[in-house]
Every structure is written in C-alpha cells, then in structure tokens.
C-alpha cells in the first residue's frame, strides 16, 4: 500500500510537471530482466568482485588534468530507486516492482547491522511515518545515487557536481580542493561532500548529514552522526561500480557497504528535465489523512 | 582632417581596449569567459525590482528595472495591485515554490555556475533549484509549463546569452506582486566584466501582461571567501 502511494506521488509530480510530454524512460528495472551488466552478474554480491576485477585492466578516459573522466548521465538499473536496500519481496499491487535482491554486500547476510532498538525503529518507521522522499524532501546520500531516473556528473576545476532529474531538485557539489569539512553546526539534507582520487577511483567522504531522510521507501535510516564513504570506479566506458560504506556508531553495530552499477545513458542529446516535486505535489496530504506522520529523524532510546 | 585623425585613433585604440578587456577575465580551455564560481547579488530586488522605500523588514533599494516603470496593461496593473495587497500569502515564495527566472538570480542566496562547453549548469542554494542551460540547441518542441523554464544558451562574443521560454504563470518577479503570464520570454545576458563581477541583464517579453518589452540589469558578485560553499535552504522542510 505504501509503495503504491509512493509511486503515485512520484508519477503525479512527474506528470504534472512535464505537462503531458512525459517520455517513458528507464527507471529502476528489476534485475531479472538484466542477468548480466558489464559482463558481470547483476546481483550486487556477485557484481561487486567481478566489476572491481574488470576495472583493474580498464584504462578510463581522462580529463585534460589527467583524472578519470566520469562525466555523463547515469542510470541505476539495479538499485530500483531503493525500494529496499535489503531483500525486497516484491510488490503485488498492479504495476508494482518485482522482487529484488539486497544491494548490501557487507555484512554478508545482506542486512543493515542495526542495534536492536534501531531495528525496531525501522519497523515502526514503515508503519507510522511518511517516506521523506515521498514528501519531495531531498534524498540524502547514498539514495541520491540510487534514485529513480538519472543523475548527471560534471567535473569542473576543483569540484564535481552530481545533479539529479527526479525528486524535485537534488544536487551535490563535491569539493576536490582539500578543504576541511564544515563545522558540526551544519546538518544538511545532502551533507558536506569532499572528494579525492585513489588511483582511478573517485572517493567521496560525506558528513554533516541531517539524519532526516531514509535510504529507501522501507524505512531504513541513519542519524546525523552518519559518515558515508563512496567509491566510484569505471568498469568499462559505460559502467560505474558504485560503492558506499555507511558508518554511524549511534545506529549501527558496525559499518556496512552497498554496491550497485551505474549505467551511462547513451542516447544522443539526452537532457535531464525539470521535475518540480513539491510544487506539483497535491498528494502528500493524503498520507497525513491516512494516518502517516512526517518523519523527523530517529528517536534514540532513553 | 581633425575628424580623420579621430577616426584613426578610434580604429587604433578600440582593438587594444578590447584586448585589454578580454585579458582581464578568466577563460576556459576553449577560450570562452569562465563563469564558474559562486555568485550573489548585492541588491534588494528580491523584495521589489522597482525603486522602493524602506518598510519594516524591507531594506530600501534603487530598482533594477531600466527606467523603473513596468509597462503593465491596464488589467495587469490592477492584478499587480491586488498581488501587492495580498503579498503576505499570495506570493508563490511563501509556499516555497520554485521562484522562476529571473527571480531566482536575485534571491538573497548564493548560486554556483558549473560551466562546460555543451552545458552551463546553475545550482542555487535556494531549495536546491537547478537550471540546465543547454548550449546551441533548440527549445523543446511544444509548450511546456516549467517553473524555471527551458533554457538554451549561446555565446555572443564574450557574453553568455540564455533564451528562456516555456514558463508557467505561477511565479512572480519579486515580493511586491510584480508578475507575468505563461507567455513570458526571458533573454538573459551574462557578461564577465572582470574576474569577480558578472554584468547580468534580463530582457522580459510577455504580451499578455506587458505592452512592450522591458529590461532589468544588475551585478553578480563572486564569493571570494575561503572555502565558501553553497549550504541549503530547503524551504518547505522547515
């Protein structure tokens, strides 16, 4: 039920804003349709070692300054907009997403390593609260990279911008100039992202996140103590190995890591369009009427 | 003879002056002025694009409209009056909607220009608004009704010219009720006048609301503070 409402909001917002010129695009697709991506099995646990092995022998295209060129518009075909970072049993409602396998590669059981109270809160989240993304609030990190439709990476001087099409208006600027993180006084939806190169891999460290978003539509969450370390590595000309490790000592017993591929949109002249989410969102009130409450962040045990 | 000498002088000096000007601004690898950076206006157009005295909570300011007067049709002038009277609730900004163009430019928040040869991207601190300016491409076919419009750019010498169409009629120009219809057509001109200042112009056409085109102009100032970055103003999250 929740996921159907969620989809309806996403689609309503999208349809309202593109005013009828909606073109069907590759959104999250179930992996059953794509057994192989970049020559690797399309299940995160198997894609992960296979793609990193391939990346060792791939010489990426380079920017004039010699750094790997990750620029382009990227789709996340396995992440399914993060219906669930853990195993997803499938949504039986008409047009619902099919089942999907967890994107968590560590721990090996594919589960978020919550403290017991936090596992209980996850259950409560899905029963009581509105997915903040469904209210058109920003995705946070790493959901930005898994979100429906596409994101555009642009490398320019000492910064890299990552700009999404879906979800209203979402972007991050990753600074590569060695500056320090913002003071802890700042708690941001999209955090403070600082990047550096580790060989051919772009490493992004994100802190100063506000802990008010979910990873997915199933209530998986973090606190404002979260630190996300992302690693983006070209496997071939059109595929990125995307990895994110989450550390949050207030919520998780240990760090955990997700992996999924990002695929280049190769359609010539493809342009990301405007999606005005909040502006076209007349459905959020329905959630409140349905008894769901806005999510304001984790409630720690006393 | 005097005239002849003057003409010679002009012919001799203008190119030198132009070269001096063009050396003064940073340039990208393809020789275009490099607008990359974080910019912000230092004016009060967000409150009122026309000349206005101070009120409680509103700083006084000289307007940004050339000639100050806005050529509203009689019906539109009435609507503007009503907008002004009801501005505390009727201004789309109070609902946290995307503010449209050119209003986003002079909101009291910084924005970042990311420049690439085929696309100039404008990232705004206000509500994570984004504008993708696609270079040397036609507008999307058919009428769209976008909050921030469809932006197509080209270089006119050292000026980035952005043609913006396909707006909806739900945004205003300022907090004083100045408004437009979905027939709005904006032509923006971004000219780097030195390393840290962009001369910004927006030419406005809207035959449903105005009797003639008009223009606003202002300076965009580069943020030079160490480690300056965009923060967030996620308007409807508060």
Layout of SSEs?
The complex is a heterodimer of chains A (302) and B (238).
Chain A: H1 2-18, E1 36-37, E2 40-41, H2 44-57, E3 72-75, E4 104-106, H3 116-128, E5 129-130, H4 143-146, E6 150-156, E7 159-164, E8 171-175, E9 192-198, E10 201-207, E11 227-236, E12 239-247, E13 256-264, H5 277-280, H6 284-289, E14 293-294
Parallel strand pairs in A: 5-14, 8-9
Antiparallel strand pairs in A: 1-2, 3-6, 3-13, 4-13, 6-7, 7-8, 9-10, 10-11, 11-12, 12-13
Chain B: H1 2-23, E1 37-41, H2 74-85, H3 87-90, E2 111-116, E3 119-124, E4 130-135, E5 150-156, E6 159-165, E7 185-194, E8 197-205, E9 214-222
Parallel strand pairs in B: 4-5
Antiparallel strand pairs in B: 1-2, 1-9, 2-3, 3-4, 5-6, 6-7, 7-8, 8-9
What can you tell me about this protein's structure?
The complex is a heterodimer of chains A (302) and B (238). With 302 residues, chain A is α+β, with helices and mostly antiparallel strands. Chain A has one domain (2-270): Beta Barrel (Lipocalin), CATH 2.40.128.20. Helices cover 19% and strands 25% of the residues of chain A. Chain A has six helices and 14 strands. Chain A has helices spanning 2-18, 44-57, 116-128, 143-146, 277-280, 284-289, and strands at 36-37, 40-41, 72-75, 104-106, 129-130, 150-156, 159-164, 171-175, 192-198, 201-207, 227-236, 239-247, 256-264, 293-294. In chain A, the strands form three sheets. Chain A has a nine-stranded mixed β-barrel with strand order 3-6-7-8-9-10-11-12-13. Chain A has a two-stranded antiparallel ribbon with strand order 1-2. Chain A is globular and about 55 Å long. With 238 residues, chain B is an alpha+beta fold. Chain B has one domain (34-226): Calycin beta-barrel core domain (Lipocalin, Beta Barrel), CATH 2.40.128. In chain B, 16% of the residues lie in helices and 27% in strands. Chain B contains three helices and nine strands. Chain B has a nine-stranded mixed barrel. In chain B, strand 7 and strand 8 (197-205) form a beta hairpin. The chains are: A alpha+beta (302), B alpha+beta (238). Chain A binds chain B through residues 17-19, 21, 64, 71, 136-138, 152, 154, 156-157, 159, 161, 163, 168-171, 173, 175, 179-180, 182, 186, 188-190, 192, 212, 269, 271-272, 274, 276, 278-279, and chain B through 29, 36, 96-98, 112, 114-116, 119, 121, 123, 127-130, 132, 134, 137, 140, 142-148, 170, 227, 229-232, 234, 236-237.
